[in-house]
Amino acid sequence: AQSVTQLDSQVPVFEEAPVELRCNYSSSVSVYLFWYVQYPNQGLQLLLKYLSGSTLVKGINGFEAEFNKSQTSFHLRKPSVHISDTAEYFCAVSRQGAQKLVFGQGTRLTINP
Amino acid sequence: GAGVSQTPSNKVTEKGKYVELRCDPISGHTALYWYRQSLGQGPEFLIYFQGTGAADDSGLPNDRFFAVRPEGSVSTLKIQRTERGDSAVYLCASSSGLHNSPLHFGNGTRLTVT
């Protein structure tokens, strides 16, 4: 079985500062990794995904994440955040070839002016 | 085009009652998923349909929960004898069903059992 741990439940940052949201996973088999974002009063949207190939994955809105197999991590980063990035961010994992996603508990990103 | 639509957006019911939650997936999407999100938690998988059949229902918590997708499009999640612990946001997602195709989520139905 797979599991995901998001190490921070809340992350406050100032506008235009860099941010890193941490995600660690556990699995005995190869996995795919995802980050989803949930803006206030909206459904979950896919931010980026890692399936194979380059370990640095670029997503929408200037976000990127790096897959680190040895550390079983998939941290999300953005060099300069905006007020509009205020949202809940979820890391998720699926077994390769499977359809079921296992989500972490979420990290609430709050941007202060 | 239209996204995944879930109705109702909010549902309040009394303990012990029966409820139905509806999901309209994106047209043409063959795969449909139900997740449950409790307060302060990430979404938790319930069931996955490929076409009309439930390909994986391992996440349904007990036999009070049941879901159908009779024509391979709209799906209904049914909960019998609701309990206060069933209170959560129920999320539906659909995808094209192709390998690695992304999930498109609806805004969810917030169920409150009083």
How are the secondary structure elements laid out?
The complex is a heterodimer of chains A (113) and B (114).
Chain A: E1 3-5, E2 10-14, E3 19-21, E4 24-26, E5 31-38, E6 45-50, E7 56-58, E8 64-68, E9 73-78, E10 87-95, E11 102-103, E12 107-112
Parallel strand pairs in A: 2-12
Antiparallel strand pairs in A: 1-4, 3-9, 5-6, 5-10, 7-8, 8-9, 10-11, 10-12
Chain B: E1 5-7, E2 10-13, E3 19-24, E4 31-37, E5 44-50, E6 53-56, E7 65-68, E8 75-79, E9 88-95, E10 104-105, E11 109-113
Parallel strand pairs in B: 2-11
Antiparallel strand pairs in B: 1-3, 3-8, 4-5, 4-9, 5-6, 7-8, 9-10, 9-11
SS content category of chain B? mainly beta
Low-pLDDT parts of chain A are none
Provide the succession of SSEs of chain B. EEEEEEEEEEE
Helix amount of chain A: under 10%
β-strand number of chain A: 12
**Largest interface by residue count?**
A-B, 24 and 29 residues
- Average of pLDDT of chain A: 93
| Proportion of residues in extended strands of chain B | over 45%
**What characterizes the major β-sheet of chain A?**
6 strands, mixed
- Portion in strands of chain A: over 45%
Shape of chain A: globular
Count of runs of 4 or more consecutive helical residues of chain B: 0
Helical/strand content category of chain A: mainly beta
Distance between the termini of chain A: 41 Å
Q: What is the CA–CA distance across the termini of chain B?
A: 37 Å
Number of helices of chain A: 0
What is the number of strand segments of chain B? 11
Shape of chain B: globular
What pattern of helices and strands is seen along the backbone of chain A? Answer: EEEEEEEEEEEE
Return Rg of chain A in Å. Answer: 13 Å
Query: Measured on Cα atoms, how large is the radius of gyration of chain B?
Result: 13 Å
